[in-house]
Structure formats: structure tokens, C-alpha cells
Amino acid sequence: MAIKVLGLAQSTCTLRVVAVAKALNIPLEVEAVDLAKGAHKSPEYVAKYQPFGRIPVLVEDDFVLYESRAICRYLANKFQTKDTVQLIPTDPKEAALVEQYISVETSEYGSAVGKYVFEVVFKPMKGGVTDPEIVAKAREEVIAALSVYDKFLEGKSYLVGESFTLADICHLPYGHYACQAGLADVFDSPERPNVARWWKTITNEAAWKAALGQ
To answer: In Å, how far from its chain's centre is CA 185?
Structure first.
């Protein structure tokens, strides 16, 4: 029986989960939640699946889990074997580094890139008007964050050495939409060659392309 995820296949946080499933060849069914009609805010959804009315939510028999990064960790811990890609390394130090970069993704990278994507992509979808000042400030925040990334990507193909891990996957969804919405030059800048190399590498991973339906 396939594990079910309530969400939208192309939404940022659902994409994160789908990419992990593709990397580990996990049978995963994405059941669409009609955000436009407010299905995620319905009393039943909030009571049964997600108390804050958000997506995605993993449903496996009577087990319900929300928050995309927690879902990703659960899938990796359950389905990763010695014969699969090691999204969470078995070495405790490398595993700790994965967690470190996921934390950095959430607090530093995500706050900047997420702000840009919300203002340029999601706000207009909800009927709002993009604020050029917020966009300009967010762009500078992304540049500042990626300038730091360029330093710790020195001499490495991925965030944790030479292996594609959950840390890399966590950065992909918001970065993907940011690049589509005007930040491609920031992610592929000669001023940050290590970031440019890393971004090209992880966006060409088979699991990510499969998650996007390419």
C-alpha cells in the first residue's frame, strides 16, 4: 500500500517530500488538497490532519505526520538501506552536519528565499500586489545568505562532502521557484562559483527531476 501525502504535487513543501520519495524509490501517492476552496482550513482537516491548516501531511494507516522536514526524516529513516542513496548518513558526524544545514536552510536561506518567493509568486496568486521594495530587500538577503554558502561549499560537491543528502533536497523547492521568478542570476553568479556549481549539480539530480515530473 502506497503512503499517502495530502498536499499539492508542485507546492514547495510537498515537492520536498516527493523528492525524498523519488530518491528512495518509495511508492507515494499525493492526494490533492483544494487550497483554493479552503479544504486545508476545514474543521475536519484541522481536527484530523493538521491543526494549523497547512500542507503536506503524511498518512500511513493510522499514523499521521505533518511538517515536511519531519516527513522527509521519517521516510529516510524508514526506507533508506545500505543499497539506497544515503540521505541521512550513518556516520554520526555527517548526520549531524546534515541536520546543521537543514537548520541553516530553515533559518537563514529559507527566510530570505521564502520571502522573495512569497512576494513574487504566491502573493499575486492570492490576489495581492507584489511590493518592489520587499522584493529588492529579499534579493539582497538571498545574496548575503548565498555568499556565506559559497564559503562553506568550497571544495565540496554537496553540502556534506561528496554525497547528495537530505540537506541538499531541503534547499531545492524554494530555490527552484526563486530561480523561475527572477533569481536565476543570483544562484548562478560568477561571484559565487561554489554555489553556482552546487546548484547546477543538485538541480540535475534524477530524484529532483522526477519530483518535478521532468
So the answer is: 20
Domains, the chain, in order of start with CATH, read 3-79 (3.40.30.10), 92-211 (1.20.1050.10)
Backbone angles phi, psi at 28, to 5 degrees: -135, 130
Q: Give the model's confidence band at 190: pLDDT under 50 very low, under 70 low, under 90 confident, else very high.
A: very high
200-204, long-range: CB < 8 A, 24+ apart: 201/157, 201/158, 202/158, 202/164, 202/168, 202/169, 202/171, 202/172, 203/172, 203/176
3-class secondary-structure state, position 63: strand
Mean pLDDT of 158-185: 97
Between CA 181 and CA 114 the distance in angstroms is: 12
Residue 1 has pLDDT above 70, yes or no: no
Which pLDDT does position 6 carry in this prediction? 97
CA 201 distance to own-chain centroid: 16
Rg for the chain, CA atoms, rounded = 17
